[in-house]
Design a protein that fits this description.
- The protein has a two-stranded antiparallel ribbon with strand order 1-2.
- The protein contains five helices and two strands, in the order ααββααα.
- The protein has two domains: 5-69, no CATH class; 81-115.
- Helix 1 (5-17) crosses helix 3 (70-79) and helix 4 packs across helix 5 (101-115).
- By secondary structure, the chain is mainly α.
- The longest helix has 15 residues, at 101-115.
- Helices cover 51% and strands 9% of the residues.
- A hairpin with an 8-residue loop joins strand 1 and strand 2.
Length: 119
């Protein structure tokens, strides 16, 4: 399965929007199947952007988020604004699916700085 940065952003926004601070968050994201969401939850946990639990069994693959980490909040604060996100994606000229996350993060942060006149 390929990494989808649009889905990454959607997962981060959904985790942040959850009022659940004590347990696992059930995510249902329109337009995405549960397996793709679980896979991206796993990736985000491995990247240190969220805390999540692996609930996979021999009957199926399932990861559920618990919360954002400090790094997750930091990235989302830069990527939350639709204008900033869309400009960053335009800068990557459709290559977002093939760039390393650190490159995406750098482009989003620079676009955010430019947006706020901090460059």
């Amino acid at each position: 399965m390929k990494r989808d940065f649009e889905l990454v952003r959607e997962v981060l926004l959904a985790v942040e929007a959850s009022d659940n601070t004590q347990g696992l968050i059930d995510l249902t994201l329109p337009g995405h199947d549960d397996k793709a969401v679980s896979y991206h939850v796993k990736l985000l946990a491995e990247a240190g952007l969220i805390e999540a639990n692996d609930l996979s069994t021999m009957h199926g693959f399932e990861w559920k988020p618990r919360s954002l980490t400090w790094a997750g909040h930091e990235f989302l604060d830069a990527a939350r604004n639709d204008t900033v996100w869309n400009k960053a994606m335009t800068k990557l000229k459709g290559q977002a699916a093939t760039v390393p996350f650190e490159v995406l993060k750098a482009v989003v942060l620079q676009t955010c700085r430019d947006y706020w006149g901090l460059s």
